[in-house]
Amino acid sequence: MKRILPLLVLCLLLTGCVALPVTAPAEPMYLALTFDDGPTPGITDQVLDVLKENDIVASFFLIGQKITEQSEYLIRRAYDMGCSIENHSKTHPGMPELNDREILDEVSYTTEQIVRITGEKPEFFRPPYISYNQKMYDLIDLTFICGYGCEDWEPSVTAKERADRILRDAKPGFIILLHDMEGNTQTVEAIKTIIPALKEQGYDGYLLESAPERVLQFGEGNFLRAFVDYFIDELNEKAGFNSKVVLCQPIAPDLDDRFNEQEGLYTLFLRGFQDGKKINKKRVISCVSRCLNPYKDFEAVLACADNPDLRFIACNTTEAGITYDSSCQFNDVPAGSYPGKLTQFMYRRFQKFGQEAGKGFIILSCELIEDNGKELEKCVLKYATQWNLGEDFINWIKTENIFCSTLVDRIVTGYPRTEAAAICEELGYEDNLIDTGEIFGFWVIEGPQSIKDEFPVDKANLPILITDNHKPYKQRKVRILNGAHTSFVLGAYLAGQDIVRDCMNDDVICGFMNKTIYDEIIPTLDLPKTELENFAAAVTERFKNPFIDHALLSISLNSTSKWKARVMPSLKKYVERKGTLPACITASFAFYIAFYNGYAMSEDVLTAKRAANEYTVKDDKAVLEFYLAHKDDSAADLVHAVCTNTSFWGEDLTQISGFEAVVCNYLTQIRENGAYEVMKALA
């Protein structure tokens, strides 16, 4: 068996294979220590002395023409110590400029020398100058590997400067690239400092061992990295999913470099309030192999379709991402729309594996639209028809691929700009891809149970549900989580609060919200009561998150349509089932009217007043103009005008027995006594 680098070792490979199995210290940091441009008598042997003294090994990437009778003993010594002997070309040329024969000669010569001396073929190839292209990738049968260097070939860089830079920048998953070339005595001195310091620092988290790229992900944003990639990382660790994720950025800006510079690694913080405690959990996510930019190299994206191991496609391209644009053409490089790119990709897959069963994709659509998976499939089929890609392809789309509609639930707060410097200082390394989100996470995937055979969520005991109908869970989220927001935040703002978390620390406001949820919303839903109440309890904890300052005014945006979509169904279902009005929900409608009761309009916002301060109401222009026109109405007139505005609600709410009168009574109380007193009476 090939022996590899037990220091602190995690080799990150450009092809997407990541961790190598290692013999590591008790608290490994998972770094790879590598040396290029040897073997060099007088230098390599000093490096080996330092390694032996610290009881670790490294990887040596050799230049073939430097392997002589005088230097072979160094290779044998390194190999006998357990070091990894790898290929760095024959003459160290700029290889992208070579022809096919010259490329093969550069690689095969050094491979033959290594086999002759060690009896084992190298596994990895590091391109000289880290310069490579697709032609090299296609020709060379070794796995490409890069690394992080510190310009240790420069004589002006002192040993201390080299050591300081490595120790400052090294992070879990780094490949440290040094050189055992002529004259590099300062590098030898540097590693005498670097190695003990890294061993002492340690990293005890999970990092993925080498794995095939089985997931293509359209989208590299904060949400997907804190949600989909987090769950895949957990599946790798807990259920042996053994999969790497290739990211494909959906829009043109150059974001891919940041990911590839960090070899796909990033630190995720899940922060919140759980079981009555403040929680801040850190995890280094290691499931990402690389990031591709289709606007730079679409062929590299399409080439992923040729990988027989690829099985899953995940996406979150924003609500506008799943749209059909008839102007997209098959020959576009790439198609402008996401469904167009996906169709191009799937056609490449069909051409390669269309005759083999089980080579289609399980597609996990995470966009925030209704029936996201079904809508995506519709768009793909439209493009297949528009582009005349053939009935066989259309049938393959339908029979060999599973388009899953999903529900995703996690608040992701993204890169912590104001905290980043302090976080990196605490971590001991720079991370330009730090991501943050709340503790809570729940993923509902609509599809056949057979998906579990390939996506082992049950084995990992993760909050991921595979079901034949995701809509009850979407309804639960919309009615409880979103409905709670919409039903209490406007009243809470009028009562003097500004942040959701502060509302949860107020017994009256929190009590009003909980009564709304438990007594008026949950009775209108059809999932098991215990399940609903557990979700509701989690909602309260989520709203208490000490790491998120969720402003009530930001939640208030477009409250008219939100109240219709999130709260009105609970109102109508409660009346249907109970034969009476839900008091808190009815009061929330009065809070909504009071909040929108502004007095001046400018730049498409309505200005209103809360006690001594003004605030702005943001909604559709027609909504704001309506409220401005009724700014001087009595409570009765205003309530009647709002209830009978069918353009808002799609129906006349005065037809709900007693609703208009009760709302009017609540609005009068709000005007006379304030929103807080109304909540207090109901809580």
Topology summary:
Blueprint: E1 32-38, H1 44-53, E2 59-62, H2 72-80, E3 84-87, H3 100-118, E4 124-125, H4 134-139, E5 143-144, E6 148-149, H5 159-169, E7 175-179, H6 185-201, E8 213-218, H7 222-226, H8 228-239, E9 244-248, H9 256-261, E10 266-274, E11 277-285, E12 288-292, H10 298-303, E13 312-315, H11 338-353, E14 362-365, H12 372-386, H13 391-400, E15 402-409, H14 420-427, E16 435-438, E17 442-446, H15 451-454, H16 457-460, E18 464-467, H17 471-494, H18 500-504, H19 507-521, H20 529-543, H21 552-555, H22 559-578, H23 583-596, E19 600-602, E20 605-610, E21 613-617, H24 621-629, H25 635-643, H26 646-649, H27 659-673, H28 675-682
Parallel strand pairs: 1-2, 1-7, 2-3, 4-5, 6-7, 8-9, 8-13, 9-12, 10-16, 13-14, 14-15, 17-18
Antiparallel strand pairs: 10-11, 15-17, 19-20, 20-21
Helix pairs in contact: 1-6, 5-6, 11-12, 12-13, 17-19, 17-22, 17-23, 19-28, 22-23, 23-27, 23-28, 25-27, 27-28
Q: At the fourth CATH level, what is the homologous superfamily of the largest domain?
A: NAD(P)-binding Rossmann-like Domain
Mean pLDDT equals 89
- Chain oligomer state: single chain
Radius of gyration: 30 Å
- CATH class call of the largest domain: Alpha Beta
